[in-house]
Amino acid sequence: MGKVHDRTAGGRGVKVRVPARPRTSPRSPAWRDAVVHGDALDTLRRLPAGSVHLAITSPPYNVGIPYLGYADDRHHDDYLAWLKTVWEELHRVLVPGGRFALNVAPTSIKDFHPIHHDLSTDLRRLGYIMRTEIIWYKQTMGRRTAWGSWKSPANPHIIPSWEYVLVFSKGDWRLEGNRADIDITGEEFQRFSDGHWAIPPERHRRGHPAPFPEELIARLIKYYSYRGNVVLDMFGGTGTVASVARSLGRHFVHIDASPEYCELALQRIARVPAASAVGIAAPRSVTEADALSPAR
Ligand SMILES: C[S@@+](CC[C@H](N)C(=O)[O-])C[C@H]1O[C@@H](n2cnc3c(N)ncnc32)[C@H](O)[C@@H]1O
Predict the structure, then answer these.
(1) Is 70 in the pocket of ligand 1 (CB under 6 A)?
(2) Which atom of ligand 1 is nearest to the CA of 212?
């Protein structure tokens, strides 16, 4: 909605409605509202310090998922060491009080690693404040098959019907912002504050093995950020975080190593209706990481 201004000298005359100033200036930096084809760590190194308010991501889980162009089966310690370098760079890129919501699933039953413990330990050692963990209950128990020893205590299995969203802050619990840029309703705030979120997995996979459901991302964005903030996903896949961020009036940064997923994300973001994305630019093409600033 625009503001009403008196356009005549002396304060007399017709009042005209001037459209609200777009939040994106013509000199908007190349990384903002961009789909970046590149490696997560290399691209983060090219982003300025203190430029992102909220990061939401789900890294490759290292459980052999067949992503296009990425081998999801590193040695567990190498995998954690690699992610730690990414979290370290993210810490630099977040604003003071900036948030990081990390989605991670329990690993397979047989070769079980409590990876959410490993990740939260690493992030806290890097200086992140751990705010909470949300249980994303996926309601998938109708499809269970791996009982272990059926109806016997000999070796029964617990089937993971949930995933975690571990939530962290940089430096401060508070994120400063304008009250006018809050868009969560009282009813939503009350409902989301219960950390057990029952949300079915995404049915529309868009050729990707593990996309986020939009409802999960919309809740995180409304709960943890203000309109006009910058929301990042450095393992962005099909662009769920970027397109929901844009539809909620936030800037986005989408990074993925696969050119095919970047192209899918670009098409998806471009379909967000302009009316819901006031002031947020849709990227016109996929940007290569080395077209941003030189890596630090
Ligand atoms: C779990 S999926 C993310 C799916 C995403 N949340 C969505 O809604 O579509 C992980 C993504 O990380 C990407 N990826 C793997 N290694 C990467 C790297 N080194 N840098 C950037 N992206 C990478 C994969 O291509 C894959 O799309």
Answers:
(1) yes
(2) 8
CB atoms within 10 A of CB 80: 17
| Chain segment 67-116, per-residue pLDDT in tens | 666 666 678 889 999 999 999 999 999 999 999 999 999 877 777 788 99
The Å distance, Cα 296 to ligand 1 centre, comes to 22
What total number of domains does the chain contain? 1
Does 75 reside within a domain? Answer: yes
Domain, as residue range, for 242:
32-140+159-291
Written as six digits, the tokens of 96 are 């003071």
Largest Cα–Cα distance of the chain, in whole Å?
A: 88
**What Å distances lie between residue 140 and 41, 86, 108, CA to CA?**
33, 31, 15
Q: Which of 270, 277, 294, 289 is nearest to 24 (CA)?
A: 277
Tokens of 171: 């430096």
pTM comes to 0.88
The domain that holds 286 is classified in CATH as 3.40.50.150
d(CA 235, ligand 1 centre) in Å: 4
- Residue 234 inside a domain? The answer is yes
Q: Is the CB of 39 under 6 A from ligand 1?
A: yes
